[in-house]
Amino acid sequence: MRDLSRRHFLALATALPTPLALARPAVARPAFAQASEAPAAPWPDRALRVIVPVAPGGSLDILGRSVARALTGPLGQPVVVENHTGAGSNIAFELVARARPDGLTILVGSDPLAINPALYPKLGFDPVKDFAPIAELVRAPQVLVVKNGLEARSLADYRRLAQEAEGKLTLASQGNGSIGHLGGILLGQTLGFNSTHVPYRGGGPAVVDLVAGHIDSLLVTLPAAIEHIRGGRIRALAVTGSARAASLPDVPTVAESGYPGFEVVTWQGLLAPAGTPEPVLERLHAETRKAMATPEVADNLRAQGFDLATGSRDEFAALVKAEAARWPGIVKASGARID
Asked: Could you give the angle at which helices 203-211 and 222-230 cross, rounded to 10 degrees?
């Protein structure tokens, strides 16, 4: 267990019954109030850092900044977004895993947190043991999209073309080891076809090349492709969620296209370092839920193709644990490895 500073001890003491709470020095001011109380003084006592593991401009960065803006008022202190990129997001993950567990450094995490331990031989964090989930924010399915020149109007058409091409049909993703890459492996295993994987440095460049007709198909997070789908520049065949995406109601899921149980989704949420006091986590969870429910945040995210998550902290923790257990086998089957 991590050592707690005097401030952390005092923060925990406010949540405990007397006599410990009564023994607290009267001059000390805790960094956090109890989750159920409105703080008498500004809460917390200094700025929060929101660590985003990608460059500015991507969907994860936009999400982090939206939440940071919405949290600034209720918390009474600035909420500052910091982009720490590199090493497949591992730099940001390790920074937060090693941060002081006082609730003042939080991560906007996503599926690479659970996938990367299977991809990288040596990492300085464990996705389950080193993080305390605060709140799942959004989910988004992957979407299978094809260039307009490909004669496929359904998942059945795509399967037939892929089988006839005998591995020559190109299926791109946003990078080696990405959820799009691994989801494509799983899709081929489930439908019974082989394809040629084309990795890109992000979903944006991959979508641009699909629009230009340089690749045949792409499995990518829905928000990265939705405007091009709506504009008719590429064609969506299926989404990988358990239900149809509200932003694309006419596009069926892989499951309802004849492959029940198939599901691959991107998740994004807030996490703190392990050892962060429970009252702190509960307050952050409550304030985050309020922020996500504001029309400014909710409507903007839905328009981009995200589904807003509403689960508890325990449900988010269970998701991270399940994802960390799910991906190693698929990574091994894909042969993907990053040194």
From this structure: 30
DSSP code at position 310: -
Q: Which of 118, 139, 80, 82 is nearest to 319 (CA)?
A: 139
330's enclosing H/E stretch is helix 313-334
Phi, psi at residue 12, to the nearest 5°?
-70, -35
Phi, psi of 51 (to 5 degrees): -90, 120
Structure tokens given for 324:
């960390």
Report the C-alpha gap between 161 and 165 in whole angstroms.
Answer: 6
Averaged pLDDT score across all residues of the chain: 85
> Alpha-carbon distance 182 to 177, whole Å?
6
| DSSP track, 197-219 | EEE-SSHHHHHHHHHTTSSSEEE
The dihedrals phi and psi of 260, each to the nearest 5 degrees, come to -60, 145
Q: What is the pLDDT of residues 70-100, one digit of tens each?
A: 888 888 889 999 999 888 899 999 999 999 9
Q: Are 308 and 298 in contact (CB under 8 A)?
A: yes
Q: Please state which CATH class domain 140-265 belongs to.
A: alpha beta
Measured CA to CA, the distance from residue 142 to residue 184 in angstroms comes to 10
pLDDT per residue over 176-229, tens digit each? 888 999 999 999 999 999 999 999 888 888 999 999 999 999 999 888 899 999
Quick check: 215 and 172 in contact, CB under 8 A?
Answer: yes
Beta strands in 155-264 (DSSP E): 170-173, 196-199, 217-221, 234-239
Domain ranges of the chain: 6-139+267-334, 140-265
Do 140-265 and 6-139+267-334 fall under one CATH topology?
yes
What tokens appear for 272 in the block? 């703190």
223 Cα distance to chain centroid: 13
Query: Cα angle vertex 224, ends 221, 227, to 5°?
Result: 125
Helix/strand number for the chain, H first, E second: 11, 10
Q: Reply yes or no on domain 6-139+267-334 having CATH 3.40.50.10950.
A: no
